[in-house]
Write a structure and sequence with these properties.
55% of the residues lie in helices and 11% in strands. The chain has 207 residues and is α/β, with parallel strands linked by helices. Keywords: Kinase, Transferase.
Length: 207
């Protein structure tokens, strides 16, 4: 790979993105960028009433991730230094396409593209996929109050949306490498061999 490795770990809610990203950052000795979730002041309201609070929630995430991305690109990518993130900015479209409707969705799309179209995107994506039971188990373990009563249909739809999104990103050609991890059968936390295999694949993509 001729350009600076910019790695994003992605997948639906509860799949283990932050855990894997943190483990990879330690193993590969890379700086890490963590997404802001619990700091979003609209998140509890959103899960109580998605229709009313979706636009505020999504705009908060977009503006914060935009600032993080801007800082990350200037501090690392433009300096030729590899970096890993536990999200891809594209996730804003994945979620907003599901939560927003009509004119709000169209306004959001326009703002998203204005903010992000001229930024370098991650060129290595570690995509963790998993089924509903796996997600529910991991969501229960991390015990975030606002996630405990999450609509199962919302999660099922999110699983499908991520598959569609990854297929879309893959169409960008050889400039993006997507490494898919089966989160149902691969336990990178408890099984060191599983993690070592993932790390070796990422190292190979970085070289």
């Amino acid at each position: 790979m001729s350009h600076t490795p910019f790695i994003a770990v992605e997948g639906p809610i509860g799949v283990g993105k932050t855990t894997l990203a943190s483990m990879l950052a330690k193993e590969l000795k890379l700086p890490i960028v963590h997404e802001i979730v619990e700091e979003n002041p609209f998140i509890d309201k959103f899960y109580d009433n998605m229709e009313t609070w979706s636009f505020q929630l999504e705009m908060f995430f977009l503006c914060n991730r935009y600032k993080q991305l801007q800082d990350t690109i200037q501090a690392y990518i433009y300096q030729g230094k590899p970096v890993i993130s536990d999200y891809h900015i594209y996730k804003n479209l994945i979620f907003s396409e599901r939560t927003l409707q009509g004119s709000e969705r169209e306004k959001y799309r326009q703002i998203y593209h204005i903010l992000t179209d001229d930024f370098p995107s991650p060129n290595i994506i570690v995509y963790i996929k998993a089924d509903l039971n796996t997600l529910l188990s991991r969501i229960a373990k991390r015990n975030r109050s606002f996630e405990q009563d999450m609509d199962h249909q919302y999660l099922l739809q999110l699983i499908e949306d991520y598959e569609t999104a990854m297929n879309s990103l893959a169409q960008h050609g050889p400039s993006i490498h997507i490494l898919t991890i089966d989160g149902n059968s691969v336990d990178f936390v408890e099984n060191s061999q599983h993690f070592e295999h993932i790390a070796s694949q990422v190292k190979e993509l970085m070289s």
